[in-house]
Amino acid sequence: MKQRIITAIIFGAVLLPVIIYGGMPIIILAYLLASIALYELLKMRNLSIFSIPGIISLLLLWAFLLPKEFQPILDDLNYTKIEVALFGVLLFLTYTVATKNKFTFDDVAFSIMSTLYVGIGFYYFMETRFADQGLTYLFFALFLIWATDSGAYFIGKAMGKKKLWPEISPNKTVEGSLGGVVCALAVAVLFIIFTDIDESLLGLLVITAILSAFGQIGDLVESALKRHYNVKDSGNILPGHGGILDRFDSLLFVLPLLHFFHLL
């Protein structure tokens, strides 16, 4: 626990100033975190990011992450992100032939899905910060997830009896999951009171409950991945916490939904 707290303080001391400042630093941070997360995913399947498919995945990720203000770079080349992605698919499929199926169709699918999984979440990490009231909503998402995780852990430990999804994460309970949602709702009330967030209380409470639930689904998705590939943590870059995916799995689900619900 001591190691987890120390790591969280150091990581927060680096992350929070960048989030507050925004601009180019948050773009660099998003690219760095997304690249590490992709490395962690590929490693689960014993694919090296320094291999040809790993480099293709990384380049596709970087193109996918390109913020709106840098979109003219692709426009000048007369390409869209979809066209870049399709070209990447062709390169992957060509590589299956070049390796005589040592790099398989399943590996192609995993590489593409990994790129999308990581890219969507970290793209919206940047776009949330750059939007109107973006800083407020980004902190809202962070506090919502922290409250959900903490509430689920402590309430589950104190009152949890019925297992939530034992085949995926044996320690999570229904009571803990509901407790996490309740704690997230408390965060919504505090944001209505103390910030200028532009939502009605009822509307924000409904959306918060949904976001809290999907944040927990994001956590379960990563747990399912780790269980399938028989790894304990996605990485070890954050002592006591695991890897970047272990810390951002919920955000990868919550941040896109902020935009899909047209909050931003």
From TrEMBL:
- UniProt keyword terms in alphabetical order: Cell membrane, Lipid biosynthesis, Lipid metabolism, Membrane, Nucleotidyltransferase, Phospholipid biosynthesis, Phospholipid metabolism, Transferase, Transmembrane, Transmembrane helix
> Hey, which pathway is this one from?
Phospholipid metabolism; CDP-diacylglycerol biosynthesis; CDP-diacylglycerol from sn-glycerol 3-phosphate: step 3/3; Lipid metabolism
Catalytically driven reaction(s): a 1,2-diacyl-sn-glycero-3-phosphate + CTP + H(+) = a CDP-1,2-diacyl-sn-glycerol + diphosphate
Write out the transmembrane intervals. Answer: 6-34, 46-65, 77-96, 108-125, 137-155, 176-195, 201-221
Q: How does it sit in the membrane?
A: Multi-pass membrane protein
- The yes or no answer to whether the keyword NAD is present is no
EC class of the enzyme, as a word: transferase
> Which terms does the UniProt entry file under GO BP?
CDP-diacylglycerol biosynthetic process
Entry EC no(s)? 2.7.7.41
- State the GO CC annotations: plasma membrane
Entry GO MF terms: phosphatidate cytidylyltransferase activity
InterPro entries in the record, alphabetically? PC_trans
The subcellular location is: Cell membrane
In the UniProt record, does the keyword Transmembrane helix occur?
yes
Q: Which domain of life is it from?
A: Bacteria
* Annotated family: Belongs to the CDS family.
Query: Could you identify this protein by its name?
Result: Phosphatidate cytidylyltransferase
Q: Which organism is it from?
A: Sporosarcina globispora (Bacillus globisporus)
